[in-house]
């Protein structure tokens, strides 16, 4: 397609986002915007080894200052506070003493009150290295080409570096239009919370923030006045007449384009079979972000996988759907029938199908290697509060069946959901103990309230008001619920049990290999699978 208004667009995935598979958001945008006649380049800063390893350096140093972090599953729970610290470092150092005090509050996330000014100074040195490297990489990109628009993916963990990148761009090339888009700077991405407006107000180098599925929104801003600073959401788009939505039809979208990325750096390719989720778990933002659940036809998913394999030479896929359940049976069946073998990892809910060994065997034969399963809790009361719509018996039977079929069961757990009592958590620990041989990995996270999430008891500012001028975002905590101290105490108990039971949580290649050897030792599979 030739476009008389052809724009040169650069899209960046900022750090920190595990480079397990290529960042699909910007890959989808690249494919879509190219189909509209634009010239698009994508870059992933996370495949820069020295930069990515600075995250590890931060946590390693953090564990020296705060030894209890070793029991906090810190590589999962820490990135949130790491991001808050980075953000304060980049945008909140106008008053040195106040800044140090703020960081002490941020790093005392477990209410332990042990953070010292020395620890802040030590960790700040790592943040300085990160900022310098992000800036240098951005300048290098600017020297490689001329761009009309530069966009960054905004996740909780990438938001600080996204700001650093866009600030560098605006300073050096003020005519470039700078754009933020993606799931959000906090968990969830709520227009009503006022946080997106705060970003525009406090970061004058950000021109546009797009809220929601990105393709049509991005296309729209390319036709608008480039001087305008604004937040644009799906509500601002005209409704598509057939479906009365302004969402894309996933069955007709172009393949994600990974051109421009160094694919050697990733273990998997990424693709998806659906957008959104038909469920509404109380802690989750998936169904809010994607609005309506939509899926591709089985033929399209299979063709997409085969075509991606042909183009990029890999047949291992991270299925980046919110949830695979709605389509997993026909998809696996179809993949069993095709000659070209593919392997995949996906997010799975323990529903009735997971209890049916004849179905699960087909999933394994069709290439499902690992399932990421949100068990969350083994207390029926908490599962009910979460609106999880699974029972503990189902979790028991589902894990048994899925593991018996050789699929790696990567389980996810939540500590401190509002209303969770200590004996509820004891039930979770008991379940974990009784099922550890059916569990490939066990990742526990603290409960986090979504940005602007209403609660009967209300919310209040997570940090004293005096720090407000230093903070780009407004952080809120629930007025009632499990205290941070208690949440981390529960995580500690879970982690101690995980160490005792030797259930891995592989965050390095060596640990990944060891996890697979354990799965073989436990008799769930005869041979190692790549991850
Ligand atoms: C796959 C995945 C992972 C993989 C990442 C693999 C990889 N390298 O990509 C793994 C398992 C490693 C992972 C880990 C985590 N994840 Co995750 N993950 C996902 C998942 C399921 C799919 C991502 C994806 O590819 N989506 C499909 C693409 C097409 O969507 P997209 O990236 O959002 O892009 C669209 C729009 O957002 C927008 N867009 C994106 N970029 C840009 C840029 C611009 C300029 C614009 C305009 C628009 C735009 O347009 C795109 C097309 O519509 C999402 C949920 C989901 N369904 O999206 C969660 C999700 C991204 N993860 C999430 C979280 C919280 C995490 C963890 C932090 C959890 C934790 N505490 O450990 C860790 C982070 C670890 C780390 N430091 O990297 C949250 C992020 C919330 C937030 N606002 O930050 C999500 C949204 C899930 C959720 N609702 O909680 N995750
Ligand atoms: S099933 Fe999974 S993706 Fe869907 S709402 Fe629940 S937690 Fe979110």
What does this structure look like?
The chain has 531 residues and is α/β, with parallel strands linked by helices. Among the domains are: 8-48 and 147-236, Rossmann fold (3-Layer(aba) Sandwich); 267-447 and 482-521, pyruvate-formate lyase- activating enzyme (Alpha-Beta Horseshoe). The protein is 42% helix and 14% strand. The chain has helices at 24-35, 49-65, 74-91, 96-107, 117-144, 159-172, 195-202, 214-222, 286-290, 298-312, 325-337, 357-365, 380-385, 392-404, 422-435, 484-501, 509-521, and strands at residues 8-13, 39-44, 149-153, 177-181, 208-211, 230-233, 269-271, 274-275, 294-295, 316-319, 343-348, 368-376, 408-415, 441-446, 459-461, 476-478. It has a six-stranded parallel sheet, with helices on both faces. A six-stranded parallel sheet has the order 7-10-11-12-13-14. Strands 8-9 form a two-stranded antiparallel sheet. Helix 2 (49-65) packs antiparallel against helix 5 (117-144). The longest helix has 28 residues, at 117-144. It is globular, with a radius of gyration of 23 Å. The model has no long low-confidence stretch (mean pLDDT 95). The structure holds cobalamin (B12) and iron/sulfur cluster. Iron/sulfur cluster binds at residues 277, 279-281, 284, 286-287, 322-323, 349, 374.
The biggest beta sheet, please?
6 strands, parallel
Structural class of the secondary elements? Answer: alpha/beta
Strand content range? 5-15%
Mean of the pLDDT scores? Answer: 95
CATH topology type of the domain at 267-447 and 482-521: pyruvate-formate lyase- activating enzyme
Query: Helical region count?
Result: 17
| CATH C-level of the domain at 267-447 and 482-521 | Alpha Beta
Total strands: 16
pLDDT below 50 for ≥5 consecutive residues: which ranges? Answer: none
Which architecture of the domain at 267-447 and 482-521 would the CATH scheme give at its second level? Alpha-Beta Horseshoe
CATH superfamily of the domain at 267-447 and 482-521: tm_1862 like domain
Distance between the termini: 40 Å
Q: What sort of overall outline do the alpha carbons produce when their principal axes are compared?
A: globular
Strand arrangement, major sheet: 2-1-3-4-5-6
List the ions, cofactors and other small molecules found in this model.
Answer: cobalamin, iron/sulfur cluster
Q: Compute the gyration radius: what is it?
A: 23 Å
Residues in helices, as a percent range: 40-55%
